[in-house]
Design a protein that fits this description.
The protein is of the alpha/beta class. Helix content is about 35%, strand content about 25%. The longest helix has 18 residues, at about 180-195.
Length: about 240
């Protein structure tokens, strides 16, 4: 069995295919991600990172190329099968949180399990477990408009974890937060990576945050222009340095 949870070969994404103004957004990209790895994909606006994220997250299909996620080839799958893969194998964390306004934190975290057909008692038990993991057990009955930005993002992270996905895909997860709150959210990702062994892919334009991940893939004009291996991030040492 492959140690890679993601294998992408010759991924191409074009828009307006066959027209005079055809756009080549992703150009022959190869990416492999190991199980339990924490990587970042960085690039300026227009580099293709959002398009690539949509393909990794099975929200969009490549025009050409092959994509295998956790042993499952996705390229020829039906829309219904892709939807099922998204719910079971990918936990999404977005910049804008994407919480349902009229549902409590607990109900928001239950949602992926509801789609998966889990019974109510099991859903509640599991949702409470993950809200506790992200430090939000005392806010589980609050609505999103009663939570701060950082609290909303922690609820979103709990929701991303409840179906025990193969990967967590985080798209600019600190982009809507102030630097102090963003630091807390990044520390939470490090905790999940180190304690839960999750594979995490961080999409960001923030080079500083990218440097905390084990590997940085840099995109420009739809191509990978560099890959850099970093050391393992020591959360405790970083916090001690901050306090000194």
């Amino acid at each position: 069995m492959s140690e890679h949870i993601i294998t992408m070969k010759n991924i191409v994404k074009n828009f307006y295919i066959g027209t005079e103004n055809e756009l080549h957004i992703i150009k022959n990209i190869d990416i492999s991600v190991k199980k339990g790895e924490f990587i970042s994909i960085v690039g300026a606006s227009g580099s293709g990172k959002s398009t690539l994220m949509n393909i990794i997250g099975a929200l969009d299909r490549p025009t050409d190329g092959h994509y295998v996620l956790d042993g499952v080839p996705l390229t020829a799958m039906s829309d219904n099968d892709l939807s099922d893969i998204r719910n079971k194998k990918i936990g999404f964390v977005f910049q804008t949180f994407n919480l349902i306004p009229r549902s409590t934190a607990l109900k928001n975290v239950e949602l992926p399990m509801l789609y998966g057909g889990m019974d109510r008692r099991s859903r509640i038990e599991k949702a409470k477990k993950y809200l506790d993991l992200v430090g939000m057990s005392d806010r589980m009955e609050h609505l999103p408009n009663e939570l701060s930005g950082g609290q909303k993002q922690r609820v979103a992270i709990a929701r991303a974890l409840v179906n025990d996905p193969a990967i967590i895909l985080a798209d600019e997860p600190t982009g809507a937060l102030d630097s102090e709150t963003g630091r807390l959210v990044m520390d939470l990702f490090h905790k999940i990576h180190q304690e839960e062994g999750k594979t995490i892919i961080l999409i960001t334009h923030n080079q500083e945050l990218a440097e905390e991940t084990e590997r940085v893939i840099t995109l420009k004009d739809g191509r990978i222009i560099s890959e850099k291996i970093n050391g393992t991030y020591d959360m405790r040492a970083a916090q001690e340095e901050l306090c000194s």
